[in-house]
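Module 6 notes. Inverse folding takes a fixed backbone as the condition and produces residue identities as the prediction. Think of it as a translation problem where the source language is geometry and the target language is the twenty amino acids. Below is one complete input and output pair. Work through it position by position during the lab.
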């Protein structure tokens, strides 16, 4: 039971880190597109 709990915890931690990376990546893309649009107009 204890090893299972540790594995679940590590997996959740990894998922959270991955989600944060994705969110930061999308924010960067969004900011880049916002910066590019005024230059194109």
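Target side of the pair, the amino acids:
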């Amino acid at each position: 039971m204890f090893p299972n709990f540790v594995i679940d915890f590590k997996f959740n931690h990894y998922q959270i880190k991955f989600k944060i990376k994705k969110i930061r990546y999308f924010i960067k893309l969004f900011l880049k597109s916002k910066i590019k649009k005024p230059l194109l107009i």
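Reference fact for the lab report: Residues 2-40 form the longest helix (39 residues).
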